[in-house]
Design goal:
Elements lengths: L2 E6 L5 E5 L17 E6 L31
Antiparallel strand pairs: 1-2, 1-3
The chain binds zinc ion.
Length: about 70
């Protein structure tokens, strides 16, 4: 079930809405205006800063050595 984030063009209120149909009528939760802009789907967004896997030979998160031969 997709959840979309909207921003009201009238009062700049930002809100999330669960969209049920193909042509949903979205109203601003604050002022009731239908002039809203869909921003993006929250569904499936993992949120930016993923832990980058360390490159080979640079150790791992459970040890600080560079060889990392005892913890694997
Ligand atoms: Zn509004």
């Amino acid at each position: 079930m997709p959840i979309f984030e909207y921003k009201c063009d009238e009062c700049d209120e930002e809100f999330e809405k669960l969209v049920m149909g193909p042509n949903p009528e979205i109203e601003c939760l604050k002022c009731g205006s239908k002039k809203v802009t869909k921003k993006f789907s929250v569904f499936g967004v993992s949120g930016g800063d993923k832990p980058v896997p360390s490159s080979e030979g640079s150790g791992c998160s459970s040890c600080s050595s560079s060889s990392c031969s005892t913890c694997h």
